Known about the structure:
- The structure is a single chain.
- The protein is mostly helical.
- It has two domains: 3-56; 75-122, PAS domain (Beta-Lactamase), CATH 3.30.450.20.
- The protein has six helices and two strands.
- It has helices spanning 3-14, 17-34, 36-56, 62-83, 104-109, 119-122; strands at residues 90-92, 98-101.
- The chain has a two-stranded antiparallel ribbon with strand order 1-2.
- It is elongated, with a radius of gyration of 25 Å.
- The two termini are 33 Å apart.
- This is PAS domain-containing protein.
- Keywords: Membrane, Transmembrane, Transmembrane helix.
Amino acid sequence: MNKSDLKTFMNRVFLQPHFYIFVLFVFGVIFLFYEPVIGFIAMLVCAASSVFTLLWGKKRSPSEESIQSEVYDLHSIQKDLLSYFPFPFIMVDAHGWIKWYNSKIEDVIKEKNIVNKNVHNLFSDITAD
């Protein structure tokens, strides 16, 4: 599992209210054996949270839907702008590995498919400093 998949998994699990309701339920069961009053209160809170999440948790207002689509549109606009940028443009990571480039860079270096190559090998005068 790479870092991106792990981050997606963590966001999908830990940003969901169902996860926290389950954790509260487990603690409630444990407290039922040691401190029944606190365990019973935890179970009531767990049940109320479950009902609240089921009834109102998944509804999105039309404004939220339009914001979500605008964010997606903005992402595609940014990608298009970088693709058609009139100057050579390369995105590299912190170690100098090329992650993305536009088509204008191919005119400068006369090489195709430079993704995952180190920018220092292509341009020796570029340093990390």
